[in-house]
Design brief:
alpha+beta; four-stranded antiparallel sheet; two-stranded antiparallel sheet; 12 helices; about 40% helix
Length: about 260
């Protein structure tokens, strides 16, 4: 029981959600990288995966944390209802995948063997399915065993390197600085971190008017605290509230009181 409580959502740390424009900027730069930029390509792919699957840093980076990172063996790729065999399918067949899923094992707040499956985003690069395809192809080409974290990178030198929360945070802050203050960020660097991707994905769904119960299931939140924060910081949602309130006149029934607590 105590272990279960420890894995429940802690009080939220106030980081700002990363908007889609930042993700698109990072993807644009990644597509112009020189050949064999394996590490930066992997960092970009893990950012895409974290944003769309609403993942915690410990789940999408290769670092010590209180949860288990997703591994090569946790990935499934699909063409229609057919699940591809990641051991025997060709790279060309993998790139034809229309959907990709992650299977939870011991990740925080996740139910063992629960599967979250997403289809293509419609973008040829900034897509959770294509990002997972790229990670599978990279790891498979280096004979990585199934337990290898998706954030493990095999370099041309024959060594490996890990995508860590610090690396993710640094790249996100660079992109935010490049795009300027128009996104609503201040010079405070603590506003942006590897945790911002999970909040950013949830905000994108919220602004897209996806039901909050569905977002909660996808993000595995056990409380409403995150949604209270997201609602109050989502400018597209709050934009017309004052105008709507101005035109929402009403009358009260006699002796009808409103509770104050």
């Amino acid at each position: 029981m105590q272990a279960a409580w420890k894995k429940a959502d802690p009080p939220p740390t106030r980081v700002k959600p990363i908007p889609m424009s930042v993700i698109r900027r990072i993807c644009l730069v990644a597509q112009a990288l020189p050949p064999n930029s394996f590490f930066l390509e992997a960092v970009t792919d893990m950012i895409i995966i974290a944003f769309f699957y609403l993942l915690r840093p410990g789940e999408y980076t290769d670092s010590k944390s209180d949860t288990k990172p997703f591994t090569l063996g946790d990935v499934q790729l699909f063409i229609g209802p057919t699940r591809l065999n990641l051991d025997t399918a060709t790279d060309a067949e993998l790139r034809m995948a229309r959907a990709a899923s992650l299977t939870f094992t011991t990740q925080k707040n996740g139910i063992p063997n629960e599967v979250i499956k997403l289809g293509r985003s419609g973008d040829p690069f900034c897509c959770p399915t294509f990002a997972l395809v790229r990670r599978v192809i990279h790891l498979r080409s280096n004979n990585a065993p199934p337990h290898t974290p998706l954030a493990r990178v095999f370099l041309a030198s024959g060594t490996t390197k890990s995508v860590t929360p610090a690396v993710i945070t640094n790249l996100l802050r660079q992109a935010v600085r490049f795009l300027g203050t128009g996104l609503g960020f201040t010079p405070d660097p603590d506003e942006v971190s590897a945790r911002s991707l999970r909040a950013g994905g949830a905000m994108a769904l919220l602004v897209s008017k996806v039901d909050t119960d569905v977002i909660r299931l996808l993000g595995r939140w056990r409380s409403d605290e995150m949604f209270r924060y997201l609602h109050l910081t989502a400018e597209p949602i709050m934009r017309n509230f004052a105008k709507r309130m101005l035109n929402a006149d009403y009358t009260m029934a006699p002796n009808q009181l409103v509770p104050m607590h």
